[in-house]
Amino acid sequence: MRLDKFLKVSRLIKRRTIANEACDAGRVTVNGKPAKASASVKVGDIIEIGFGTKAVKVEVMDVQETTKKEEAKELFRYL
């Protein structure tokens, strides 16, 4: 799955366009490397997102095309 779509489906970032912009600005890394929005995400990857002064680090637990709001939290685990 594309990185920008995973960020939207998992509700880590609200909109796919914002996820795209965050990737283009270099604020998103996958396994320690800066990632483009088109980067492939798989189970076990570590994603780090910079939100201003704080950073969010998560591990991908599951990859799904769509999910309900309640189940979105099960797609990743905070580190």
How would you explain this protein's 3D organization?
This protein has 79 residues and is of the alpha+beta class. Helix content is 20%, strand content 27%. The chain contains two helices and five strands; from the N terminus they run ααβββββ. It has helices at residues 3-9, 16-24; strands at residues 28-30, 33-34, 46-51, 54-60, 76-78. The chain has a five-stranded antiparallel β-sheet. A hairpin with a 2-residue loop joins strand 1 (28-30) and strand 2 (33-34). The longest helix is centred in the first third of the chain and has 9 residues, at 16-24. It starts with a helix and ends with a strand.
Q: Helical amount among residues, as a percent range? A: 10-25%
The average pLDDT score comes to 93
The secondary structure category is alpha+beta
Number of strands: 5
**Terminal Cα span:** 21 Å
* SSE string: HHEEEEE
Strand order of the largest sheet: 2-1-3-4-5
Strand content: 25-35%
Helical stretch count?
Answer: 2
The largest β sheet comes out as: 5 strands, antiparallel
Low-pLDDT segments, ≥5 res: none
Rounded Rg: 11 Å
**Oligomeric description of these chains:** single chain
Task: Describe the global form.
Answer: globular
Helices and strands, with pairings:
Layout: H1 3-9, H2 16-24, E1 28-30, E2 33-34, E3 46-51, E4 54-60, E5 76-78
Antiparallel strand pairs: 1-2, 1-3, 3-4, 4-5
Helix pairs in contact: 1-2
Task: Give a short synopsis of this structure.
This protein has 79 residues and is an alpha+beta fold. The protein has helices at residues 3-9, 16-24, and strands at 28-30, 33-34, 46-51, 54-60, 76-78.
